Amino acid sequence: MMKRCVVVCSAVCIGLLTAAAAFAAGTLKIGGLFAVTGPASFLGEPEKKTLEMLVRNTNSRGGINGIKLEAVIYDTGGDATKAVQLATRLIKDDKVAIIIGPSTTGESMAIIPVVERERIPLISCAAGIKITDPVKHWVFKTPANDHIAAEKILNYMAKHKQKTIALLTVTDGFGASGREQIKALAGKKGFRIVADEVYGPKDTDMTAQLTKIRGIKPDAIICWGTNPGPAVITKNVRQLGIKVPLYMSHGVASKRFIELAGAASAEGVMLPAGKLAVYDVLPKNDPQYKLLKEYDQAYKKNYGSEASTFGGYAYDAFLLASSAIRKAGASPERIRSGIEQTRNLVSISGIFTMSPKDHNGLDLSAFEMVKISKGDWVLIK
Amino acid sequence: MQFDQLLQYTLSGLSTGAIYALIGIGFSIIYNATGIINFAQGEFVMLGGMLTLFFLETLKLPLWAAIPCAVAASTAAGMLFERLAIRPLRRPTPINLVIITIGGSILIRGLAMLLWGKDTHSIPSFSGDDPIAVGGATILPQHLWIMGITLLIVAANKFYFYHTISGKAMRACSYNRRAAGLVGIDVRRMVLFSFIISSAMGSVAGIIVAPLTMTAYDVGVMLGLKGFCAAIIGGMSSGGATVVGGLLLGVLESLGAGLISSGYKDAIAFIVLLLILFVRPQGLFGKAQSERV
What's this model's pTM, rounded to 2 decimal places? Predict the structure, then answer.
């Protein structure tokens, strides 16, 4: 009897002690704002899943410096007004120390004034260059700027003496931004834009635009869009028998694009790809290789589908935040300065080196030029 | 302007136009039998494509078996839609019915998204991807399929409406529902029939275009609108006029994109729609107050 009492008592004591310890270390709330539903759901869904997976894994390994994490994730539906309301809710009600997201450039721009006023660090998962240029004290972003992808293509073209460009871009934010960047860069680097065509995101036949381009005879065609448009264009190019080199943006760097366009049509298409999409053809000594493989396999195990570049943006954001918490501390101000001091952090989208002047931290090495050959990627130099 | 470019624009336009025509006829059949615009028509186009994919990939059927299964399943969906959403309505005013079809389309789209996800998928072509040269222009074998099947369906329609009892009964309903009822035609059955025919046609359209345009849970929206434009140009006729309307729309879009600017491609379709509604609301070929079948 006595013995049992002692056992129970000590069990209770141990319980209390650990509870106290946990309480002392506390939990840190990470806010997530993603477009899980709506037109940008292809971005928001993998981002949300990735963040949830990482928080779960981190907690099961004991948290960061003993601090447990809690993800508070809201769905913005891709709506900027809703994003602002939810950002305010995350800060005022949930008292998060940092916000990851939103998924789109429009939403990110809308909540920047909120986080700047409330002094909470924001790591956006949207690609728009406006988010971190000019630099805002509390705002970072993980996707590489569009102009890095554009520059990668133009550098490759310059190497192969292609001088005139036919542009074919989609009429949404992604296409418009790509079109601007390419035009600006092409001017600087001595290329000539000889055709500037557009297509709608839901268009199902682009032979009209391509027929016009075929008549102009450019050295290369650059198409800037996300699926399914570029796949339709790739098929149309083959149908029209156009032999000009066809470049795509990083927006279609997934196996799905090859599936949609068909391996025969996609043969020879070139594009700058984030390393996640092509990790299985990277040299094994690439610094990112191990992490990319781990992420892809973990994502597959948890959700039964391949990891996407978009989920990778949330991965980067989480890694930036968690390494800042580990090194600098858990208050919003410390996390912010911790992120800004990031040096050579190997992550999914690239290797991040932040500075007070650069809140994106990626350079040309974030992309690899690849060519599609026999339904698979081949690295090209 | 070179001749082969012009030819390519026209051919591309005709093949896209054939799809618009097929969807447009689906709109007009239901309109003629019930007096409503079925805004869920585009969703049956989507169902055709997505169900084919489902039978192909999940149930591993060959293409020739997957297609009839998909048409049958979409037709069943059209029947269910009529039974559950249209028929129970106590006071079927046109505005109620239109709102119901819009609601139905959102529901169907949502279900498709939950079932099959948000990705875009492609279906293999019926007979290869090697382009066929026509003069200086090229088309794909799939384009021939599209044009051929459209012609076949239009001919079958014509036969049904003019040479079968139930087709004639449906025409009678479109002239005067009450009178048709008085002579012993079961009007409600005719309405059900119209939904069956148009959902089957919509799904066929969705299947034959999927190898070219790919398919996803939300392809029905834009295709549905373009089909609606075609039907309006054709004055809501379920025969040749809507086909001409669709082809005209396709060619105008393609010529507009090629000769003026690709940025105005969709605008051209909707400007044509507005012009027709303002100037000739009875359709390009109709006389005011003419028969509508």
Answer: 0.81
